[in-house]
């Protein structure tokens, strides 16, 4: 948005910022917050502090101090943003996802060599987990968390006996290998620092980026549940939740949603195991000692791939779930609707976590849910799978529409990164990162509000 376009919505932006920053104790903090939003929305390739300060005509140290050392509650701003987003978007579902922030150095908070979907490979980056409110026409971020890698947590460093204190850290660490000239495996020698030096290095990095002492490594799915609990404390509850297979394949994550009374439809992998929906456990003979055994299913659980293959591609149905977005090439002859072949089955997901969970009763009956599979014609097997605890009366078309609803989130990430500088923050502090992404979220929410309520406002597409 250029200066003229921003000036045309100045009053609306000031009213929006007044509500978002209402909890900031000082007037200069509220003024700088508004100024930062203007800097994020103004045209410009870089949205780091120095380029923004030049465009705004202010000292960049003012913006830096606001992000890194000023005393204002980022959680309070997010709480107010979440309330506004719920009103503006009126979501049909919430989406859990994560995104990468590529980095060159090693000093930024929680940067590490790790897999990033943004990069499509392992690279030096930060990873953030986010929750979005979404419909087919609009979406907005509700909450953020910065993922803490194991290399930033001293409780993930094995002790002298090889034991790891952090209960979530990987227990099995494979020795990296490479191939010699003959194709045989040979050890890949990687220099390992002594345990004391590893811990000292972690403590220095945490102190330099001011990581809170209680921030430890835990899986991304657990961080998502934490954010859902925080949002619930703010009075926000999802009508439905969806997530990719990185979250959906984890039984503990699905159980966590059920315990929070959150309906879901989440992607999973072909290796997820389940019993057919019609299967029933049978009584097991009592050995005469110890407690009576729980009834068990007579056949071992099968992968969702095998369960789907047993029905065959003939059981699939063509489903159209939404209109295709306008093509950039006006001469395109692509179909105007997105469609595919799908199959829905009732199954009972298996596994130790579910068998030990609260939903598995004393009779051994596993909880039932939907298995949705997409099976393109000409393929030997399905390409995508989802699990859902929606009612058994849910139509196939509705299952497909909801399963495919995550596409809006890519729009969020694209707009936040390319237009609003989400990944342009060059500071190294934990609090600075969280404040920057919160302010970028506020800028995107304001633009979303303009699009929905004043679609012809300057700078809107």
Overview of this protein structure:
This is SRSO17 transposase. Residues 20-325 form the Transposase IS701-like DDE domain. It is a single chain. The protein is of the alpha+beta class and 461 residues long. Among the domains are: 3-83 and 424-453, no CATH class; 245-281 and 293-326 and 336-405, no CATH class. 35% of the residues lie in helices and 19% in strands. The longest helix has 24 residues, at 430-453. It is globular and about 80 Å long. The model is unreliable at 174-178 (pLDDT under 50).
How are the SSEs placed, and which strands pair?
Blueprint: H1 3-8, H2 10-20, H3 27-41, H4 49-56, H5 60-68, H6 74-89, E1 93-102, E2 112-116, E3 121-134, E4 139-146, E5 177-179, E6 185-187, H7 195-209, H8 220-233, E7 241-243, H9 245-248, H10 251-259, E8 264-268, E9 273-276, E10 302-303, H11 304-311, E11 317-323, E12 337-349, H12 352-355, E13 369-374, E14 384-388, H13 396-403, H14 407-418, H15 430-453
Parallel strand pairs: 1-7, 7-8
Antiparallel strand pairs: 1-3, 2-3, 3-4, 5-6, 8-14, 9-10, 9-12, 11-12, 12-13, 13-14
Helix pairs in contact: 2-3, 3-4, 3-15, 4-5, 6-15
